[in-house]
Amino acid sequence: MQKLRIKGRYSLNGELNISGSKNAALPIMAACLLCSEEVEIDNIPALRDINTMIRLITYMGVKISKTSDNTVKINAHRIKEKFAPYDLVKTMRASILVLGPLLARFGEAVVSLPGGCAIGARPVNLHIEGLKAMGAEIDLKNGYIHAKARRLKGCEFSFNPVSVTGTANLMMAACLAEGATILNNCAKEPEIVNLGEFLISMGAKINGLGSDHILIEGVDKLEATACRVIPDRIEAATFLIAALITKSNLKLNGALAEHLREPINLLEEAGASISIAQEFIEVTSLNEIIPVSFTTSPYPGIPTDIQAQLMVLNVLAQGESSIEETIFENRFMHVLELQRMGANIKLQSNIAKIKGVSQLQSAQVMATDLRASAALVLAALVANGETEIDRIYHIDRGYENIDKKLSLIGAQVERIES
Ligand code: EPZ
Known about the structure:
By secondary structure, the protein is an alpha/beta fold. The protein contains 14 helices and 24 strands. It folds into two domains: 2-18 and 231-417, Enolpyruvate transferase domain (UDP-n-acetylglucosamine1-carboxyvinyl-transferase, Chain); 22-228, Alpha-beta prism (UDP-n-acetylglucosamine1-carboxyvinyl-transferase, Chain), CATH 3.65.10. It has a four-stranded mixed beta sheet with strand order 22-23-1-24, with helices on one face. It has a four-stranded mixed beta sheet with strand order 2-15-17-16, with helices on one face. The protein has a four-stranded mixed beta sheet with strand order 4-5-3-14, covered by helices on one side. Ligand EPZ binds next to helix 1, helix 5, helix 6 and helix 12.
């Protein structure tokens, strides 16, 4: 197992390239199962989760070739296994995204139930109810979803609550269903729009991307295409916060400010000066950090995936703040480790009350989930002394070469075997 060793209190400077979005690339790769011709996908990030998805669809019979570090060609012409085994799904919940495409194209799928994870129970009832509404017969047996459908039929389905991968799964399934499907209370995330535009480029008929209602008119077949994955807004927000807490000036090449409106507004309230251009975001922050209270919500609100990172910002702010987590029931795993580094945080159910401190102390800490580990990296960048973060496979799931990127801009970070 590997860990990161980070020497704190170095300011950062320079520019870095934002990678492709994990949460856009994963559904787009699953969507390739809908098409029997070769598809090319560019700007795919080099991440553990991407490798897991490659292993999963390769196991099914998909042919994948890498034409560069971040470009793949995927050909799902011959699928021999409509089966997603537990030992792959348990390491990456997003494997559930193969369910809709397999059912829509082949009329059958056996996919392991993902089970919960550190941040919550993560049910998939909406995925299942939506596919049943489209005429699928679904049985849950021995931890697996057994799904069959001669041909899915268009339906009207409303999500409650909003579900990102639920929206992705049903939108993909509806592309090859008979007739029209209306999805209500959909996810409006940029990753859903990226997926939808990819499906349209394959010949799907989709309207309403980015709105609460998506209308899909089923077609008989989808065809070859090429697409580019959008930049990762969560990675970009993580580095913007790194600049604020280290009082640095950073330029994030490839970051799309339009995907980060609310987070940028919040960071400007916290004292950052942020300039945005077509292809980059530049942040300067030399002032004291002003505390910013917020509540997480579905896009375009403050994403739950930057809640842990924003908590580090508030831990170092001049004053008190509160954070309300409304999406997942257990997404405060980072609090215990931050408290061990000297943070003053009190939890009351899904609300964290924070009193800023002037300094964090280095410590040996352990990553528990992807975004919590990003928060620990941020805390280590400003802590007094040398912090070691164990189990950083969590962070490698969603951040491409984070140690190399941080070292490039002046952080003292090394990856070691633990
Ligand atoms: C996606 O997860 C992201 N993952 C998550 O990012 C992100 O935190 C989350 O959306 C919210 O934005 C990917 O896109 C691969 P949801 P997802 O379905 O789709 C409840 C990261 O760090 N729900 O939008 O699994 C659920 O319990 C990861 O990159 C049901 O009740 O999340 C939660 O309370 C972590 N039934 C809420 O909806 C369902 O069938 C939102 O979950 C599905 C979801």
